[in-house]
Amino acid sequence: MRDRPVDNETRRGAPSVNKGTKRGPERCRPASEPFTARVPFLAAVDTYILSTAPWDNPSAWQHKVEWVRQHLGSVDGTPAYKRLILTHHKNLNRGDYLVDDRPNRGASEFEGEWLEFGADPYPDWPAVTAYLLPDPKGTK
Question: Is the pTM of this model over 0.70?
């Protein structure tokens, strides 16, 4: 099984978030802390994971499911339980936000707000989290 995160995530209302890509070692290598600790909005908001796998490689689809189960939980009550959507048409999904590092596969045509991960103003997960989660002090 791969340690690389799956491509995208969405939060109910339709945010989709890209958690990992082939670009950039920070996004590809496993961290010492659980992924849910690095991306706290997974548990704080209603989030779905949108990802694309190669059409002619069925085992890649299985690896996406295995990664989500290993890093985000595999039982009811965990952040991604039954919340993985594998698609080649991200624009057909509905929601408020899509976090993705590329405009491909319909990301740039997504009906909600596309947050381009890895680019300003969303260079990393703390920046995405700061935008998506209200300030606990109520100053956002």
Answer: no
